[in-house]
TrEMBL record:
This is 4-diphosphocytidyl-2C-methyl-D-erythritol kinase. Keywords: Kinase, Transferase. It comes from the Bacteria. GO terms for molecular function: kinase activity.
Length: 106
């Protein structure tokens, strides 16, 4: 007893040949992922993460820097250890490790 397939479709076989000129070259470049700089003060890091969360109205904060400078601003975004502040009509980048204290102003 012979077993035949239930459905047989006669079609030409498909073979794709690569020409010698079209050989793909292998990439030898190495990507090194940059290590993000860590925020040294863990309290400031927690405060930045908390105050950076979106709310209906931006929170006005008082940032006290190591130089003694006081900045009244809200956090626009955080990129690693860089913080973009909204200082009324201007935006300013500061380094998170320069921040000594953050106070919430009312």
């Amino acid at each position: 007893m012979e077993i035949h397939p239930l459905l047989f479709i006669a079609s030409p076989s498909y073979i794709q040949e690569k020409k010698i000129d079209e050989i793909e070259e292998e990439s030898t470049s190495i990507y090194v992922r940059p290590i993000p700089e860590k925020i040294e003060n863990s309290l400031v890091a927690r405060q930045l993460n908390y105050f950076a969360k979106p709310v209906k109205e931006p929170r006005m904060l008082l940032f006290i820097l190591q130089s003694g400078e006081r900045i009244h601003a809200s956090i626009d975004k955080i990129n690693g250890s860089q913080v973009l502040l909204n200082c009324f009509q201007t935006k300013r980048w500061i380094h998170a490790n320069e921040i000594v204290m953050i106070h919430h102003t009312v």
